[in-house]
Amino acid sequence: MNIIVLMKQVPDTTEVRIDPVTNTLVREGVPSIINPFDENAIEAGIELVEQHGGKCTALTMGPPQAEEALRRALAMGVDEAILVCGREFAGADTWATSYTLAQAVKKIGEYDLLICGKQTFEGDTAQVGPGVAEQLGIPQATYAIEVAIDGRKMQVKRVLEDRYETLEIRLPALISVVKQINEPRHPRLKNVMAAKKKPITVWGVADLDVKPNLIGLAGSPTGVVRIFAPERTHKGEILEGETPVVVDKLVEKLRQLEVV
Amino acid sequence: MAIVTDASKCTGCMLCARACPYEGIVVEDKVPSLTETCTYCGACVSACKFEALRQERPPKEDTDTSAYRGLWVVAEHDDNRLAHVTRELLGEAQRLTADLAEPVTLVLIGHGVEDLIAPAAAAGADRVLLVQHEVLKDYRTGPYTDVLCGLVEARKPEIVLFGATAQGRDFAPRCASRLVAGLTADCTQLGIDVDRRLLVQTRPAFGGNIMATILTEHSRPQMATVRPKVMRPIPPREGVTPEIDEVVVHLDERAVATKILEVARQERHHVNLADAEIIVSGGRGLKKPENFDMIFDLADALGAAVGASRATVDAGWIPAYHQVGQTGTTVQPKIYVACGISGAIQHLAGMQTSEVIIAINDDADAPIFKVATYGIVGDLFEVIPALTEAIRRQQ
C-alpha cells in the first residue's frame, strides 16, 4: 500500500486581520501551520499503512520554509517527505498547482492512494485534490469520513450537505478527507527530535517533467486583480430591559423578518 | 518577473510589506524588492498607493477567446427537483447576460429529468442542453466530467457556472483541470467587464477576512463555483418555452470507476447547516452539554438548524457536524442566533456574512456583539426559554 499525502503549509488564518487604517492584511506574528484538514489526511495515511503495510509519503509544494511542515508530518509518522520548491512554481493558481503536484506524483512512481484535506484554510477552494486526480486520470472521492480498503477497491463514506453517500471506488484513487474522519496524533517529543534529522527530498523545476508554460504564474489561467477588506456595514442594536421586555422586543424583530 | 517594481515611485511607506501574507516583499531605502517567498498573489500591488508595483501576466496566446460565446449554468438536481442553488444561478445568469447579449443555457445531465425543464425555464433558462443516460442517473464524478467536458469542447461557452455545493466543488475542478480552464471557487459576487467579455469574480479568502477579485483573462471558458444563498432567483417567468437541445451520449457502466453503494439521508432538520434559513447555535456559555436541549427547543420553535461553537464540539458536548466556523461549516443563513458564543475569530469567519445576527450573551464585551444585528446582554438561561415560549405563543 503506497500512499501519498498532499499537504500544504498555511498561515494560521484565525489570526489574520485587516488593519482598519491601512486596509491591508496584518501579517506580523502570524504563525505557519499545517493546513488543519491536511493533518487529518496525514493521520489517515499513517493509519492505513499501519493496517495494510507499505509506505506513506508526504508531498508539498511551497517555499523553503514549508520544510517545517514536512518535519511535523515526519514526526507524526510519515515515512518520507518531498518538497517541490522553486521560483518557477511561484504564483501558481489551483490549475498550475494541480499540474505540478501531479507531475511530482508521477515522479514518485508507484502509488495506490492519494489523500488530501478537503480544502485549505486560507484559500478554501477545494480544487487542487480533484485537479491532481484529473491530471493523473484516477477516480476521486471527496469529503471522506470513513475509508476501508478491500484489495484493489476501496469503500469510502462521504459526508455531503444532507446525506452520507458510500462509494466503492477502484484504486489507485484520490480521496479528500473531512475533519471528522479521525483525531490527528500529537507527535511525541522523541519523534519530533528524530524528524529533525530525517532527510527531506527537494525537487526543483529541473527534477520534474514539467512544461514551463504550465507552471507558476505562466501556467495559471486565473489571476487575482484586487484584494480588499470586506465591507462591514454593521449597525448593531443592543436590546435593553428586563428579560420579558427584551424577549418581546426580539420577537417583534423576528416578526418583521417574517419568521414568526 | 511578474510583479514589476518601480523604485522611482516608491515612497518607502511599507504598505506593501505589511499587506503581504507571505513576507514576499521588502523595502530598503525606498527600493521594493521581492523575496524568495513571493507567490505573486498581488496583495502588494493592491496595497501600493503610488503605482510603484505592477502585476504583469504573460499572455496565453493559444486561446482564441472570440470562438467562445454564451453563458452556461450546470444544473444540480435531486429527487427530480431542481436544487435551489441552480435557480439562484439561473437568476444571476439572466442578470449577467444582459451585458453579453447571449441566451442562458442550462446544462441538464441526468436520467428521466425532462420534468425539470419547465421549472428551469421559469427560473431563467433560455436553452436547455439535455443529456440523459442510465449511467447518469446519480451524480458521479467520472461520467459527469466526461459529458460536460465533451459539451464544452464542442460548443465553446465563454462562461460556465456551478453551485459551490459538495457536488459542484467535486465536479467543477475536475472539468477545469481537464479543459485547462480557469476556475474561481466560491464566488459571492459576479459581474461582467463588457469590453473584454470577462467574468469579474469576487470571493472571500482567509476565512472571510479579505475579499479577492479574480479574472480569467486569456483562457476559455471562464468557470466559477458560486456560493449558495448569495445570488437571488428571478421572479418565475411565465410562458417561456426554452429551446431544447438533446445530446445523445454513449456510456458504459463498466467503464465507471465508482459505484454508489448506499445513500443515507440525514434528518435535514437540525443538521443541514449549509442550507438552513435559520440557525441557532450554542457555545460554552451553555455551561453543560445537557443545556444544548434549550438550543434544540428554540431551534424547533423557529424551524431552525442547530449549530455549535468549536469549544463545545472539542469538549464533546455535541457532534462535530454541528460545528460552525472555519474548521466546521461556513454558513450564511438569513438569521443566525448565537447563544453563549463569545465570537472567536474562527467562529466569526464562518458566520459573519449571515443576513441577520442575533447574539445572546452575558458578557457585554464579547466580540460576537461587534457583528450582531441585535444583541441581548443577559442571562441566556432566562432569555432562551422565555424566547422559545414567546415564539411558540405566536404560532
Helix content of chain B: 25-40%
Low-confidence stretches of chain B: none
Mean pLDDT of chain B: 90
Query: Taking all residues together, what is the mean pLDDT of chain A?
Result: 91
Q: Give me the Rg of chain B, rounded.
A: 24 Å
Given as residue ranges, the uncertain stretches of chain A (5+ residues, pLDDT < 50) are none
Largest sheet of chain A: 9 strands, mixed
Which oligomeric form is depicted?
A: heterodimer
Strand content of chain B: 25-35%
Apparent shape of chain B = globular
Number of strands of chain B: 22
Q: Got a strand count of chain A?
A: 15
Q: What structural class do helix, strand and pairing data of chain A support? A: alpha/beta
Instruction: Write the element-wise H/E pattern of chain A from the N-terminal end onward.
Output: EEEEEHEHEHEHEEEEHEEEH
**Separation, N- and C-terminal Cα atoms of chain A:** 56 Å
Strand order of the largest sheet of chain A: 11-10-9-12-8-1-6-7-13
- Gyration radius of chain A (Cα, Å) is 22 Å
Fraction in helix of chain A = 25-40%
Name the chain pair with the biggest interface and residue counts per chain. A-B, 101 and 112 residues
Question: How do you describe this structure in short?
Answer:
By secondary structure, chain A is an alpha/beta fold. Chain A is 28% helix and 29% strand.
Architecture overview:
The complex is a heterodimer of chains A (260) and B (395). Chain A is built from 6 helices and 15 strands. By secondary structure, chain A is an alpha/beta fold. In chain A, the strands form 3 sheets. Chain A has a 9-stranded mixed beta sheet, with helices on both faces. A two-stranded antiparallel sheet of chain A has the order 2-5. Chain A has a two-stranded antiparallel ribbon with strand order 3-4. In chain A, helix 2 (67-76) links the parallel strand 6 (55-61) and strand 7. In chain A, helix 3 crosses helix 4 (128-136). Chain A is globular and about 70 Å long. The N and C termini of chain A lie far apart (56 Å). The mean pLDDT of chain A is 91. By secondary structure, chain B is of the alpha/beta class. Chain B has a 7-stranded parallel beta sheet with strand order 11-15-10-5-8-9-16, with helices on both faces. In chain B, strands 19-18-20-21-22 form a 5-stranded parallel beta sheet. In chain B, strands 12-13-14 form a 3-stranded antiparallel beta sheet, with no helix packed on it. In chain B, strand 13 and strand 14 (210-215) form a beta hairpin. The N and C termini of chain B lie far apart (65 Å). The model of chain B has no long low-confidence stretch (mean pLDDT 90). Chains A and B meet through strand 3, strand 4, helix 3, helix 4 and strand 9 of A and helix 1, helix 2, helix 5, helix 6 and strand 11 of B.
